[in-house]
What we know:
It is built from five helices and 16 strands. It has helices spanning 11-22, 62-67, 128-138, 150-161, 182-194; strands spanning 3-7, 28-33, 70-74, 78-82, 87-90, 95-97, 100-103, 108-109, 122-124, 142-146, 165-169, 198-211, 214-222, 239-242, 245-246, 254-256. A hairpin with a 2-residue loop joins strand 12 (198-211) and strand 13 (214-222). The protein is α/β, with parallel strands linked by helices. Strands 9-14-10-11-12-13 form a six-stranded mixed beta sheet. The model is unreliable at 220-237 and 247-258 (pLDDT under 50). The radius of gyration is 21 Å and the shape is elongated. 35% of the residues are buried. The chain folds into two domains: 3-106, FAD/NAD(P)-binding domain (3-Layer(bba) Sandwich), CATH 3.50.50.60; 109-246, FAD/NAD(P)-binding domain (3-Layer(bba) Sandwich). The structure holds flavin-adenine dinucleotide (FAD).
Amino acid sequence: MSSIVIIGGGECGGRAALQVRERNFDGALMLVGAEALHPYERPPLSKNGILEGADPKFIMDADGYKERGIDVRLGADAIGIDRSNKTVELSDGTTLAYDKLLLATGARPRPLPGIAERSERVLTLRTHADALAIKRHLHEGRLAIVGGGFIGLELAAIARGLGATVTLIEGLPRILSRGVPEDIAHAVASRHEAAGVEILCASRIETFEIGADGVSEGAFGSNPGGAPRSRRCSRRPISWVRTSRSPPCRGAGRINTS
Ligand SMILES: Cc1cc2nc3c(=O)[nH]c(=O)nc-3n(C[C@H](O)[C@H](O)[C@H](O)COP(=O)(O)OP(=O)(O)OC[C@H]3O[C@@H](n4cnc5c(N)ncnc54)[C@H](O)[C@@H]3O)c2cc1C
């Protein structure tokens, strides 16, 4: 009997497992996910879903995987792939044999130089657990978001709606530079500013300190698309969220390619 191992329990990995069964594959099928939850949709995390208290939107409930004979290993990182022996080593000490291996490891928030990967006050937004952590900080009233793409802006809108004071820091000269034309970006920026979001474009983080009462930061920036307006954020206790992504990266650190 042949076997398939899928590494990555995100939407892609989960849907791939279901499709493999849908297409009548009857061998052993294993789905390995580093997160504690069965595959779910991420888009609601930055919209009016999780931050307002909704449950994760699973693509299939746990019983559905069982009924289809899909062996789901949650909370397990694939930490090594041995291609010559066709095995995958997991962080829980188990080893899985495969005939076919699918990598569906997705993306993760981009680390910023000099800024702690993650701490009590420096957060990222990628997973359901991340969204819950951000939610816990919103009542403290101050949030700085690094990244003026769709996810950062969606989070800014939700956080403002829940009463937080929000500063959004974008490294490029305008928000949404990869997503929409300039006119639309300006209109979106205006809507956010009218709602009270402070937007700093072409902004570089100059200083960064984590203290007992929060994170202090200073940044230079300019108005979105406008004349350069050099400014410095006041030092103040805030929580940070990073939203920009880097390519697939996590785990599977040791790969034997022989
Ligand atoms: C907040 C947010 C909002 C979004 N909104 C939208 C939207 O509105 N519209 C849209 O089109 N897209 C949106 N996206 C993007 C969309 O969610 C992604 O394109 C999608 O999640 C990609 O799915 P994926 O399964 O390929 O990767 P991922 O979702 O990144 O999943 C990869 C999974 O693999 C796991 N993994 C990684 N390495 C290992 C390893 N070594 N061992 C075990 N597991 C591992 C990770 O923990 C993760 O669970 C949003 C994303 C986020 C984060």
